[in-house]
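Researcher: Good morning. I'm working through a list of sequences from a screen, and I'd like to move beyond sequence-only analysis. For each chain I'm collecting a predicted structure so we can compare shapes side by side. This is the next one on the list. No need for commentary yet; just the structure.
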Amino acid sequence: MRVAIPFDIPRETVRERLKSRSHEIADHIPGGMAEVLTDWPSDDRMNMTVRAMGQDLKGIVNIEEKQLVFEIALPMALSFIEPMIAGAIKSQGQKLLTSD
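Model: Good morning. Structure tokens for this chain:
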């Protein structure tokens, strides 16, 4: 699954906000039982593992020139909820990019 979130702020600002607020991702997963692990193999790429409901979802987030791209590998058992997950990523991703 691939979700792109356009932005019109400087790329450095996006990087800063994502790094400082990535811990908030778990707060937006229904059920309150999720754990999100992140690491940054490069300045513009964040690896992410979401552990929830007995599943480990692995993904990457790329900071491109004018968009933030989330790519998450959904197992077949969860493919039926892809539209709901994509909508949540888009909505919550935009919130992560806004200033406080």
